[in-house]
Amino acid sequence: MMATKTDISTLGEFGLIRELTKGFENRNTSTVRGIGDDAAVIGPIHAAVAGAKNPDAAATGATEGEDHLLLTTDMLLEGVDFDLVYFPLKHLGYKAVVGGINDIYAMNGTPRQITVSIGASARFAVEDLIELYEGVRVACEEYGVDLVGGDTGASVNGLAISVTALGTATHARITYRNGAQLNDLICITGDLGAAYMGLHLLEREKRALAGVDNPQPDFGGMEYLLERQLRPRARRDIIEALEQADLVPTSMIDLSDGLASDLLHICRSSSCGARIYLERIPIARQTYAMAEQLNADPVVAALNGGDDHELLFTVPLARQEEVARLGGVEIIGHIVRPEAGAALVTPDGSEIALTAPGHK
Amino acid sequence: MMATKTDISTLGEFGLIRELTKGFENRNTSTVRGIGDDAAVIGPIHAAVAGAKNPDAAATGATEGEDHLLLTTDMLLEGVDFDLVYFPLKHLGYKAVVGGINDIYAMNGTPRQITVSIGASARFAVEDLIELYEGVRVACEEYGVDLVGGDTGASVNGLAISVTALGTATHARITYRNGAQLNDLICITGDLGAAYMGLHLLEREKRALAGVDNPQPDFGGMEYLLERQLRPRARRDIIEALEQADLVPTSMIDLSDGLASDLLHICRSSSCGARIYLERIPIARQTYAMAEQLNADPVVAALNGGDDHELLFTVPLARQEEVARLGGVEIIGHIVRPEAGAALVTPDGSEIALTAPGHK
Fold first, then answer.
1. How does pLDDT run across A67-88, given as a tens digit for each residue?
2. Measured between CB atoms, does B244 come within 8 Å of chain A?
3. Are residues A129 and A245 in the same domain?
4. Least CA distance to A36: which residue of chain B?
5. CA B176/CA B250 separation, integer angstroms
6. B200 & B326 share domain
7. What is the CATH number of the domain that holds A145?
8. Is a pLDDT exceeding 50 seen at residue A58?
């Protein structure tokens, strides 16, 4: 922790993860996929043991029925990931769970169990934590997930929350980031940038009302943005619609870091390029309105804002009509050869290379 | 977060957990055991789905082979759970993993996969985190565990670490906290109080050397205490020995909060009382020596110090000889009727009721 060392920001988040985990080897045959996707994939449990004698056990394990497990974990820290000045504790508990289970959906699986750990400083009372857990409970109920464990302790400063989600998946339906193919259609659910604009609205009102007694923030007409920031939904509906349509995406990722960053993940994992079209990116009317008020670019909010909790996925070109019938899904572009890179195409036909802070 | 609320400390850690989780219901039949043990128990994966049609699927699922999963999670926060003034980052990474996998062993299972999340403030450099992950890597290698995921982010203050461990277990061998029976023998592995005394030694040297350039702490003769605090081992050897002896404990718990607290967990879960004998509690020579230097009571260190990372378990009286043959296990008492409560018996025959801060 002395000088002459390398600042973490020089590597970017994903470069840092690669650096930290490069010396690790997997030993259990049940580890189908480790680091590098929305969730780890664990093969049939028997394979973990059988594998000791037969290294192919995981590969030859049952491939029908929901026999694979998905495991993902997220940590949220006060002051970095949330601000309790405007984030109600109940919503925070709900959102923390949604973040975890949306990672399970992003693998095309079903969330089953979660654990929630909290570290809270002395400024939190029992009633505060009950409020937080009420949000956890509501999310568990809505998504049919069981709270099965956790850890409760003290913290020196603020609140820390860690959520782990465990899900199940059918082997043949598991969708990784690395399966996108040339000419596949790039699809997204919902609209983008609204959660980011909601955050800016909340920050603006926080600044405006700092020190005011009994503050009355002005959110008139912007409730949609607040809901997207404070109470995002996990896209179970889309996962169920995909299954009913017998459609398995070739790749999928949870839109949490912004469209640019998450599409770059798919391109890197799938060794491909991408073209997305500016005019096809779904942006809500209120996102435009808020961007105008704040003198911000709504497209930048969509590309780099993050926190959308929507799904980004690819499907073969031949499935275009079925995708259109899903409802709530927009086709925003297609996969191209890797040499072409990932770019946004503007209405005049010019291309802007996609970049994101975490990718260096 | 205003006044007139209930301070968290009034409930105790375990009372708080009960309060926070009392409104939760389990919906997935694969959830065999949720909150309230060292790890959650998840039944055969197929049962999660079959259960939708047949609620008994989990109960009637396969009971041979390692077909059950164990899931546990722990969060460590700087300033509460560790002090980087004397805790080397590599050891911290190692210890964080050991804490997680020892919870899997405490269920009589085999750890398979872990996730590690970190939140680090700007004072940490890439090299610091590499050191931390080197400790994680060594622990993974020693215990045959795969690092399969995690989350890497920023923190406002200090370092936060969250470890989730996933393990497998044979249904018939899973050992809960709630199976202790009248007259069962109470057994512990290793010796107690050393990690706590190691912590006090490190704290003493930290105070003595505060502000000194190039400090040379004096640990002469107390290396064992430091090792117990800084590099605890998970007790895989005992779990393997139990299996070889075809011995399934009736109850078991990881000794992390101190013998008193952890024995009270077994008594509460198993609805029983306990008598343990002062002169049978294994305390290392160096623990006695350090306690003398610090004018502290080594028995208090054993009962309430915590951080021992040993196993506390019960076996039927009839298995006494087999337990003795295991090696490294001490029989320190026996289970009594619930009305008799849990107490420590001193050499003169008087009884001291066991209490622990987390239990209120």
1. 899 999 999 999 999 999 999 9
2. no
3. no
4. B149
5. 8
6. yes
7. 3.30.1330.10
8. no
Q: What is the ipTM of this complex?
A: 0.92
Could you count the other beta carbons within 10 Å of the beta carbon of residue B93? 26
What is the domain range of residue B272?
A: 185-209+223-353
Answer yes or no: is B116 within a domain: yes
In B14-53, the residues whose Cβ lies within 8 Å of chain A are 16-17, 19-21, 23-24, 26-28, 30-31, 33-35, 39-40, 42, 44-46, 48-49
Angle (CA) A184-A186-A189 rounded to 5° is: 140
Q: What distance in Å separates residue A120's CA from the closest CA in chain B?
A: 9
Long-range (24+ apart) CB contacts under 8 A made by B136-140 are B136/B93, B136/B94, B136/B96, B136/B97, B137/A23, B137/A24, B137/B93, B138/B90, B138/B94, B139/B93, B139/B94, B139/B97, B139/B98, B139/B101, B140/A24, B140/B97, B140/B114
- Residue B179 in domain: no
- Whole-angstrom CA distances from A278 to A64, B12, B269 are 40, 55, 60
The whole-angstrom distance between B345's CA and the closest CA on chain A is 31
The answer to whether the CB atoms of B5 and A147 lie below 8 A apart is no
Tell me whether residue B5 is in a domain. no
Q: Are A66 and A168 in contact (CB under 8 A)?
A: yes
The answer as to whether A231 is a domain residue is yes
Same domain, A162 and A194: no
Q: What tokens appear for A239 in the block?
A: 């996962």
Half-sphere exposure of B18 (CA within 13 A, CB side): 8
Clarify whether residues A79 and A144 are in a common domain.
yes
Q: Are residues B191 and B164 in the same domain?
A: no
**Structure-block tokens of residue B100:** 């997680």
Do A141 and A228 lie in one domain? The reply is no
Q: pLDDT, tens digit, for every residue of A284-313?
A: 999 999 999 999 999 999 999 999 999 999
pLDDT digits (tens, 9 = 90+) for B38-67: 999 999 865 444 333 333 333 333 335 788
What separation in angstroms does the CA of B344 have from each of A187, A264, B187, B260? 65, 62, 14, 9
pLDDT at A50: 38
One domain for residues B54 and B189: no
* Total structural domains within chain A: 2
Helix (H, G, I), strand (E, B) or coil at A73: strand
For residue B20, the surrounding DSSP H or E stretch is helix B12-21
Assess whether B153 and B49 both reside in one domain: yes
Q: Is B279 helix (H, G, I), strand (E, B) or coil?
A: helix
Residue B195 belongs to a domain with what CATH number? 3.90.650.10
